[in-house]
Amino acid sequence: MKPAVFQYRKAETTREALEALGTNPGAKVLAGGQSLVPLMNFRLSRPDVLVDINGIEELTLVEKLDQTLAIGALVRHSTLSQHPLIEREVPVLAEAARHIGHWAIRNRGTIGGSAVHADPAAELPAALVALRASVVVGAPRGERTMPADEFFLGYYTTALAQDELVMRFEIPLPARRMGFSEVVRRPGDFALVGAYVEDSDAEAAVTWFGLGAMPERQVVEAWPKGQDERQALLERLAREVQSDDEYKYAMAVNVAERAYLAAQKEG
Amino acid sequence: MAQAMRPQMMGARVSRVEDPRLLSGQARFLDDIQVPGMLEVAFVRSPHAAARIRGIHTEKAVQYPGVHAVLTHQECSVLLWERDTYKVGQPVLANGEVCYVGQPVVAIVAENRYVAEDAAELVVVEYEPVTPVLDMRESILEQPRRVHPEAENVFFHKKYATPGFDEAFAKAPHHLTASFRTNRQTAVSMEPRGTAAMVDAASGRVTVYASTQSPHRMREDISHLMEIPEHLVRVIVPEVGGGFGMKANCYPEDIVVVAAALKYKKPVKWVSDRMESLETDVHARDDIHDVEVAFDGDGKIIAIRDHLMADGGAYPAYPFSGAVGETSLASRVLTGPYDIPHLATEIHCTYSNKTPLGAYRGVWGPIASFIQEGVVDRVARHLGLDSAEVRRRNMIRPGQFPYRNAAGMVYDEGSYLQSMEEALTLIGYEGFRARQAKLREEGRYLGIGISVFVEPTAMASSEAGSVGYESCTIRIEPSGKVTAALGLGPSGQGHETTMAQIIADQLGVRFEDIVILHGDTDSAPFGGGTGGSRSGPIGGGAALVAGRQMRERLVKYAASLLEAGEEDIELGNGQAWVAGVPDRSIAIRTIAETAYTNVRKIPEGLPIGLELTARYLPKRPVTFSNGTHIAEVEVDIHTGVVEVTRYAVVNDCGTLINPTIVEGQIHGGVAQGIGSAILEALHYDEDGQLVTTSLLDYLLPESTDVPRIDVRHLETPSEGEGGIKGMGEGSLIAAPAAIVNAISDALTPFDGMVDTLPVTPPMVLQMVSGGRTR
User: Fold this and answer.
1) Domain final residue pick, A114, A140, A172
2) B88 inside domain
3) Residue B714 and residue B419 in contact, taking contact as beta carbons nearer than 8 Å
4) Does B683 touch chain A (CB under 8 A)?
5) pLDDT value at position A201?
6) Residues B477, B441: one domain?
7) Is the pLDDT of residue A46 over 80?
8) What CATH code is carried by the domain that includes residue B106?
9) Mean pLDDT over residues A217-238, rounded?
10) What is the pLDDT of residue B4?
11) B376-396 confidence digits (pLDDT tens)
């Protein structure tokens, strides 16, 4: 369980990182390394060059702009879970981050890394979709921005080109208020299934994770007030998502119901 | 001054002397062993469950920079075959066929592990896959084929019945049937397996560092398999980070490493990674029990019939198959602490295209408890009786010891009923039912599960070694400090502490002045090693006997030097003195000085020096520990997730050496029991691929999954030395049954009854929806 041979490049700026990615077609970005390094040790991932972006200051910023909250790609899960701006503006993101792995993992893992890895059962990709966030991507050609739901394409697959680098995420403000819930075998595990449920003036929606191949957001006219009716609707929605396990549908409904109840508390 | 004979250290909560080095990262494990020029090994392993090998091409690997050598069966053809017992054995490197995923095929010896793994990728093996044998019931019928053409799939078959079984069974007013399944697990020691070997050019001796439970057994295996006389083999066991029975075997990798060191005259090392560990450490618990029970209207169980099946994997692990251990011993303790007069068992152990089955803490015990406690709960539910009451009605009574169970095993004195009653009080059983009923109305499903266990320990022949005794050498150095050596192979049990406690009491020296050595066959006396809960009772017994013999010698010295009668000499705190006249004393240091350097003053009839070896073989073939575990769980019926919320243990392992260490053993076993009950399972797919090859897929219990555990001790001494009984496995024997019974109890409204280990969320949801009336 040792990685195949690779070269290591430390990038001090995003320009350096992009240059390294542009000139090495087999290059990969090293952020927190919580998914990439195990994959390399299993030799399931074999980058020729590892471009270490951990020293790039601008990727660590959390900033409130006019209409958005910008979160740098290198922001660690532990920062997400306790940053005052995030706690205040997007509390559901802080809450979701607390459910990722354990302390050591949260201290290293990054939001950019989680998004790029695109594990269908991960908390953060679904959060980005649920929050209608944008992904700002850097490339030698310049920056481009795309909505999160266009960024995720399937199991461990994104719209990111090989020579591109995720710079930051922009969450529209005021952030949508929603509830979060997930089922895990053990605290810190990837979710068996999870959901974000929005019940705001703007929209009523559910975003699932761990159910299909990628985060799936579905909008409804309104959530029925009656529990039976609401759960019937949730079941219908869940079944629109192709799942690998039949039993997940029952769990999905229950999880979404809990997220809905949490959303009510959010007010 | 205190009476010397009164034990000062035995039974005391002495802090473990091992802990400072372990907790500060100073312990030296196998992978810490660095020798200049050491080469490392990586294995090319079978990607197929079953295939013929049509060709192996190693040219590219041989040429890869940094590669020292490449070994195939041609270069290393040792066979791990216990010829007296089994018809087949495993070649350490595959010979023309592979029989399980992960089987070693080629070994790469290179300057480091990175290079070795690079080169391993360059080896091309041409495989011709054949249909794998994966299902136990089919394998018994030789379907879809034989695993080994030269041997029947069933490699162990045994039938047993008490006289009059059929009649007693037929006459009983009530019957029920159940099929129990345990799924494959493995030990997952924190430190994986590993071996390092080097040849001493001067003497020609080979030194083997091995992460094993049994140093002398390993030496014997290497000597025997490789035809090297034993005195030319030295096995050193460094710090071992967990064994749990899994490190009681000699594995293919051990032999290949030694062979490479001998062949190339270079130090060679291999350390397992986690993937290799999950694939190739012996697996365990792959068993099916088809059970029929006969009982009367009061819940008194009259007869149990059990068809026991175990999947032994592709080969018998060397030198013993876990499948035989799990079944034949389970069949002998299947009635547990209950007075059940009739038993009929039939055992089938089969080959398959899976990893060989070996030992995992408790071996047969957790399976037998799962069956026996599951049976009691089923009888209780069938009759609408309280499950504690059904246990009471069936329990062996205090007056019945020594008790011969229906399989012929003789139990020595235990505290079966008392342990249950005290555990019921400890958990608050009475109050629980009201709480359960109230919370059920709120849609919360709590359950309570009882597991009363017997734990056969100190078996005169344990799975860890072929010897039933243990040895202890005590040497009082000229300084009066003590060095003692045992043939044990501790992997975290704290023997350096407990053995020193025992010896300190006997010699009257300070605990701090004793060093315990183990694990080096050049310094430790021949012994069976650690396993089968034998180190406390047998190893401790040897320490006690050696200590007593040395004490007698010290007393003779003191009597002579103090000019007093031997019967008047007392020992304590590094001194010997005349009883009642503390001024007439002599330091043990002075006695030691005399014994080694002032030899003219040695009392007549005594040898020069203070060194002796004693061996201890218990009179009884086995001594039984016992106890009761009670688990409380909450089941989320919407997600199927189970949380163990409260846990109580009343444990009786005879005379306690160190209660803190005993409690640590219990905590660990309960944690592993939670893993067995609700988390851990090795899964093979329909092609025989192991799909749980990382700890992302093989779920271990974590600290957050383990509740506070309330432990109380009872002490029913054994008849052996010191009254000590073993206790290394009882906690894992009892815990899975307690937890699954609690889950079954929680699911009573849905008629749910757990019959499979582990219980997963989908299974719980199935039980909930299966029983729910819509």
Assistant:
1) A172
2) yes
3) yes
4) no
5) 85
6) no
7) yes
8) 3.90.1170.50
9) 96
10) 45
11) 999 999 999 999 999 999 999
Q: CB-based contact (8 Å) between B701 and chain A?
A: yes
- Co-location of B489 and B585 in the same domain: yes
Q: Which of A2, A38, A188 sits opposite B117 (nearest CB)?
A: A2
**Vertex A46 angle, CA A44 and A52, to 5°:** 120
**Is B273 touching A (CB cutoff 8 A)?**
yes
The Cα-based distances of B142 to B32, B114, B133, B708, B729 in angstroms read 46, 42, 9, 48, 35
| 3-class secondary-structure state, position B31 | helix
Three-state DSSP class for residue A214: coil
CA angle B661, B733, B403 (to 5 degrees): 100
**pLDDT per residue over B102-155, tens digit each?**
999 999 999 999 999 999 999 999 999 999 999 999 999 999 999 999 999 999
Dist. CA B79–CA B85, nearest whole Å: 14
Residues belonging to chain A with any Cβ–Cβ distance to chain B shorter than 8 Å: 1-5, 38, 42-43, 183-190, 192, 245, 247, 250-251, 254-255
Do both A77 and A25 map to the same domain? Answer: no
- Cβ B564 vs Cβ B570: under 8 Å: no
Is the pLDDT at B773 greater than 60? The verdict is: no
Does the beta carbon of B274 lie under 8 angstroms from any beta carbon of chain A?
yes
Domain range for B83 is 51-130
Q: Of B460, B626, B457, B617, which Cα lies nearest the Cα of B532?
A: B457
Provide the pLDDT for residue B461. 60
| DSSP reduced 3-state for B605 | coil
The shortest C-alpha distance from A136 to chain B (Å) reads: 31
User: How many domains does chain A contain in total?
Assistant: 3
Question: Which tens digit of pLDDT belongs to each residue from B62-105?
Answer: 999 999 999 999 999 999 999 989 999 999 999 999 999 999 99
* Percent over 70 (pLDDT), chain B: 98
Mean pLDDT, to the nearest integer, of B153-170?
Answer: 98
Domain with A185 in it: what CATH number?
3.30.390.50
Residues 6+ apart with CB under 8 A from A216: A129, A207, A208, A241
Cβ within 8 Å of residue B224, ≥6 positions away: none
B244 domain residue, yes or no: no
> Which of B276, B278, B638 to mutate to probe the A interface, most A CBs <10 Å?
B638
Q: Are residue B601 and residue B625 in the same domain, yes or no?
A: no
**Full-model pTM:** 0.95
Q: What does the pLDDT look like over A131-180, one tens digit per residue?
A: 999 999 999 899 999 999 999 999 999 999 999 999 999 999 998 989 99
Given phi > 0 = left and psi -120 to 50 = alpha, else beta, which region is B480?
left
Residue-level pLDDT at B774: 35
Q: What is the ipTM of this complex?
A: 0.93
